[in-house]
Amino acid sequence: MGIKDDAVEVRAQGWRTLAALHGLIEGELERALQAKSKLSVVEYTVLDALSRQDGWHMRMQQLARATALSPSATTRLVNRLEDRGLLTRILCDDDRRGIYTELTASGNSLLAEARPVHDATLERALDEAMAIPELAPLVDALPRLHART
What we know:
Number of strands: 3
Oligomer: single chain
Strand order of the largest sheet: 1-3-2
Strand content: 5-15%
């Protein structure tokens, strides 16, 4: 194995470590949010992203980027959340092809109920990850990464 191969392996190991941390956290969040609020992690992510917008709305393509979903998957997800009365769609006044997605009062209420569950579960999952030697350095780096944004 040459030097270049070693560098690739180091990056690959870093990626596997990141994927392991993500899997641990997402699994814990999925179980807790489903049990307490009947929300999936990605549904929570949509409600949370919308709540952080001035005026509580986003274009569909912005929402797709915020959730890391394809446009078609985002449309299906928005349909489900709209059917549950948690968000609504609004046509853009300047561009009739543009569609905004906006949080409803019910969506905001459910998010307020789910946020403490999400936050406590995330904190617990990160504490558990700190006890795993391979994951601890990555968890330790998270606050520094956030400070850079």
